[in-house]
Specification:
ten-stranded mixed beta sheet, D-Maltodextrin-Binding Protein, domain 2, about 45% helix, two-stranded antiparallel sheet, about 425 residues, 19 helices, alpha+beta
């Protein structure tokens, strides 16, 4: 009898063990996904839809989007979680965070997972301008997703009122200054009620500054992210141009808010604004007037920085989670979904294949403004990025804001920012 009980116990243990193994095999791989919401519009709804669509096709993976605030807040949360040993599996973070994430040993390259010819073809399908901030040292650390360039928006009605051709945007600095002068309005007391042009200088001052340094043929950092050129005369000249727009009274004085710039455009407080193409859908939905979208005006050349976020895979997640994150990034960036994302948000679809889809082709024909950011890519440069990126960027941002508020001259502001950046980057040279 006792032997019988022993056999039954053994059988029960074996059954329990096999059931546990089966349950573990069935338990979905948990994919925590940090996502920054930094631009207006129903973006979170689209991301939720992508997560649901992916889970339907991949029942063994559970995707949990965590909306982590601005890009700055998201990287702080992601790195804090990484240091405490519980990082997200994947996150969309700025392409410019690449060096920081590598220095923190927080991420793994995508090359580790691209095993098949199909995987490799997918990794080679992205626009080259977007890969400039996604690769270093011969490895691909980020996959372009929420990518952009800065574009210029103008109010066609206000152009018409000012005697300007509503269908012709300024293409040079001289034309921009001339149009902005004609578009500036004052009331009887002399208070400005409508500025000709508005370039935001909070949130991402360094990025908007690149819309002036790039056309002036200046590059702010080397490719290795170890050296900056803030005190280059061409950089100082670009900052002087920005400061002079304010001094001429045709651009708002002091620091201009990033977040309220589209609203100032809707309310006709500014006739021309510079902002991300990621605001295109927001502007299309809320502008109660006909507007144009154009490339950034040139000076010595044309050009804009690229911008926006990449997918990264975190090192401390399990191999199964990392594989799932690779699969998710690949799924989301397929041409049809990249096309959908571009139409719903205004961000640039990240591959030519997306623009070749019938849906995005038709959308581009019906709404040519959606193609401006893409068409600007051949003259676009990498968004400013270095090692110790947040500290170096802060030195530049502080210098820009000091010049724009008049507490320092552009020359002094950029020389001080250069000294601070050199000090921070000393160990990387």
């Amino acid at each position: 009898m006792r032997r019988n009980t022993f056999v039954q116990t053994l059988a029960a243990t074996a059954l329990l063990s096999s059931l546990t193994g089966f349950a573990q095999a069935q338990a979905p791989v948990d994919l925590q996904f940090y996502y920054p919401v930094a631009v207006g519009g129903p973006i979170a709804k689209t991301i939720d839809g992508f997560a649901e669509g992916f889970m339907k096709e991949n029942p063994g993976i559970k995707v949990t989007p965590i909306y982590a605030g601005t890009y700055q807040e998201t990287i702080v949360k992601a790195l804090t979680a990484h240091k405490s040993g519980t990082p997200p599996v994947t996150s969309v973070l700025l392409s410019t965070d690449m060096f920081t994430l590598i220095d923190e040993d927080a991420i793994v390259p995508f090359d580790n997972f691209a095993k098949t010819p199909e995987d490799k073809a997918w990794m080679a399908s992205f626009y080259k301008a977007f890969m400039a901030n996604s690769q270093t040292g011969g490895k691909t650390w980020g996959i372009p997703f929420q990518r952009s360039t800065v574009v210029m928006y103008w109010n066609k009605e206000l152009f018409k009122e000012a005697g300007l051709d509503p269908n012709k945007a300024p293409t040079t600095w001289a034309e921009l200054k001339d149009a902005a002068t004609k578009l500036t309005k004052k009331d009887a007391s002399g208070k400005t009620t409508q500025f000709g042009v508005q370039i935001p200088s909070s949130g991402f001052p360094y990025w908007l500054f690149q819309t002036l340094t790039t056309p002036n043929d200046a590059i702010l950092a080397n490719d290795a992210g170890t050296q900056v050129k803030f005190d280059d005369p061409k950089v100082i000249e670009a900052l002087q141009f920005w400061v002079d727009l304010g001094k001429a009274g045709i651009h708002p004085p002091g620091v201009v808010e990033w977040g309220t710039t589209p609203k100032d455009f809707f309310e006709k407080k500014s006739a021309i604004i510079y902002t991300t193409t990621g605001n295109l859908t927001n502007i299309k939905a809320n502008a109660k007037f006909d507007f144009g979208v154009g490339m950034i005006p040139g000076n010595k050349r044309k050009g804009s920085p690229t911008g926006g976020g990449n997918f990264y895979i975190f090192k401390k997640s399990t191999p199964a989670q990392q594989e799932a994150a690779f699969k998710f990034a690949k799924w989301v960036t397929q041409p049809e979904r990249a096309a959908q994302w571009s139409m719903e948000t205004g961000y640039v679809a990240v591959s030519q294949a997306a623009y070749d889809t019938p849906t995005l082709k038709k959308y581009g024909q019906d709404f040519p403004a959606a193609l401006v950011a893409r068409d600007q890519l051949p003259v676009s440069v990498a968004e400013f990025s270095t090692h110790e990126n947040q500290r170096v960027t802060k030195a530049l941002n502080d210098g820009l804001q000091a010049a724009l508020t008049g507490t320092k001259t552009p020359t002094q502001a950029m020389q001080d920012a250069q000294k601070e950046a050199d000090r921070i980057l000393r160990s990387y040279k």
